[in-house]
Amino acid sequence: MLITHEGCLDHVAGRDHPERPDRLRAAWAGIEAVHLDTDLVRVAAEAAPLEAILKVHDQRHIDRLVDVDTQGGGRLDPDTRMTEHSWGAARLAAGAGLQGIAALQADEVDAVFCAVRPPGHHATPTTSMGFCLLNNVAVTAAALADQGERVMILDYDAHHGNGTQDVFYNDPRVLFISLHQSPLYPGTGPLHERGSGDAVGTTVNIPMPPGATGEHYRAAWDDVIAPVAEAFGPTWLLISAGFDGHRSDPITELGLSSADIADLTADALAIVPAGRRMVFLEGGYDLDAIASSTQSVMSALVGERVHLETPTSGGPGADAVQQARRVHVAD
Ligand SMILES: [Zn+2]
């Protein structure tokens, strides 16, 4: 199932801003390229109800967004801006996953791709930042956790998902795993941040050096993520699929290809049964990379491992994976 909405095109983050409407069109093109035809169920996203958003964000945060919206838009942080259509787009983006839960629980579909923007993983309980207004994946994870599900969020966007980490840092029901380039915006996500209280061990940060390739992402999966996930025992998997880890991305320095993204996604999907898998578009700023990566991920969701490019190897990253293993995996 594809959940999306043309209203997500109407949010304009700024002139020449990398987080632009054409990103969503590129994702749509990637989905069409899978040629699922009538097997692809398309659903228009509906705005998230405020009570679902309030499970993740505090009332003051929502009041501020509504205030800026009432004024016709404005700047929230140096690189996050709202126009008169942004609040509507943000609520659609946050609502898509809730419809995904309903469709999956009704056995209407096997898996869901939420092609939405603005992205969400930098939005914290109290702040919009880093192009993100509401935390879309967190709204969905919180709804599932409140139903008694154990939720694994895999975030392979090149940037650390600081907002998602903050939402669930004290929450043992949600396992948050982030593979991200370090150093890079927003500068968070070191190895030693592992959750607090009875949630220690349910935040798993794997910082990777600039230039890291798929070989080391595959090792991170085998040596760190797979054992951690097995120990946690998730009943649902949500993927924060940012495609800015692709080597063509203009604002990051990782070395992945869409084939690496295909492999990582396919491995992750095997963690839970069909019917409990959802993917959210996060970042990614090269249009061709978004299209090829989306095609790869959508193919993985229907059980096909498609390599449109060659998997990458070599480069730095082996040390980072071994350090992460020592911190996150008990011997
Ligand atoms: Zn990103």
Describe the structure.
The chain starts with a strand and ends with a helix. 56% of the residues are buried. The strands form two sheets. An eight-stranded parallel beta sheet has the order 2-1-5-10-9-6-7-8, sandwiched between helices. It has a two-stranded antiparallel sheet with strand order 3-4. It is globular and about 55 Å long. It is α/β, with parallel strands linked by helices and 331 residues long. A hairpin with a 2-residue loop joins strand 3 (74-77) and strand 4 (80-82). It is 37% helix and 15% strand. The protein contains ten helices and ten strands. Helix 7 runs parallel beside helix 10 (318-328) and helix 8 (258-269) packs parallel to helix 9. The chain has helices at 21-32, 50-53, 59-70, 86-105, 136-146, 162-168, 214-232, 258-269, 287-301, 318-328, and strands spanning 2-4, 42-44, 74-77, 80-82, 111-115, 151-155, 174-181, 203-208, 236-241, 277-281. The mean pLDDT is 97. The protein has one domain: Arginase, Chain A, CATH 3.40.800.20. Residues 157-159, 242, 244, 283 line the site of zinc ion. Zinc ion binds at residues 157-159, 242, 244, 283.
